[in-house]
Design goal:
The protein is of the alpha/beta class and about 210 residues long. The protein has a single domain, classed as Rossmann fold (3-Layer(aba) Sandwich), CATH 3.40.50. The chain has eight helices and five strands; from the N terminus they run E-H-E-H-H-E-H-H-E-H-H-E-H. Helix 3 packs parallel to helix 5 and helix 4 runs antiparallel to helix 5. The protein is globular. Bound molecules: thymidine-5'-phosphate (TMP). The site of thymidine-5'-phosphate has 11 residues, from helix 4.
């Protein structure tokens, strides 16, 4: 099973994943956590270019292609082989981030962006995608509290990030069976419990 977590900035995905991994491993599953952009030596180098605050002049098309380059590598090197071996792969972001940020956020042609995503992934779609949803202002406020994590994408305008969030909510409407939405403004434990409930339901197992 391929599970992806998505959300606007500061939605807390990254802090939840290790606990979900531990929870699933305790139940006997072989689980492999990863993140995008990144997760392989090559993809982590591309991540550095993408997020470097010095690269302010990067064009949205350059940005879109670099995210796909990082993704093609991780899909081939990590995700596909692990899924083929019967493991559960949990990814902190996947191609829906590209549709939300590069498509809706930068207002690029969505059909063209989707075609690039399909090329980069070879058509690999998640079995379950969870949106940790949060008001943009609240998320950015959470993120500013950790200066080390602040990157070039965070520094885009609030309007950009509002289009990203609206884009996610639109994608949920288009594919309601793949997506689950969790309100990440709740306290951390409640979000974690909902995540476990949604994943257990998809695995057809009690929590
Ligand atoms: P994060 O590790 O804090 O989630 O940072 C990843 C950043 O990269 C975040 O701002 C979202 C952005 N991003 C895209 O714009 N497009 C993508 O395809 C991916 C995977 C991430």
């Amino acid at each position: 099973m391929f599970i992806t977590l998505e959300g606007p900035e500061g939605s807390g995905k990254t802090s939840h994943i290790p606990h979900l991994v531990a929870y699933l491993r305790e139940r006997g599953y072989v689980v492999f956590p990863t993140r995008e952009p990144g997760g392989t030596k090559i993809s982590e180098q591309i991540r550095d270019i993408l997020h470097d605050m010095k690269n302010v002049e990067m064009h949205p098309r350059t940005e879109t292609l670099l995210y796909q380059a990082a993704r093609a590598q991780i899909v081939e090197q990590v995700v596909q082989p692990r899924l083929a071996a019967g493991e559960i792969v949990i990814s902190d972001r996947y191609y829906d981030s590209t549709i939300a940020y590069q498509g809706y956020g930068h207002r690029q042609n969505l059909d063209q962006v989707r075609a690039l995503v399909k090329y980069a992934t070879g058509g690999l779609t998640p079995d379950l995608t969870i949106l940790l949803d949060l008001e943009v202002e609240a998320g950015l406020k959470r993120k500013t509290q950790n200066a080390a994590e602040w990157n070039r994408m965070d520094a885009l305008t609030v309007e950009f990030h509002k289009r990203v969030r609206a884009g996610y909510l639109e994608m949920v409407k288009q594919e309601p069976n793949r997506w689950a939405v969790i309100n990440s403004a709740q306290n951390w434990d409640d979000v974690q419990n909902e995540l476990k409930r949604v994943i257990a339901a998809r695995l057809n197992k009690p929590i």
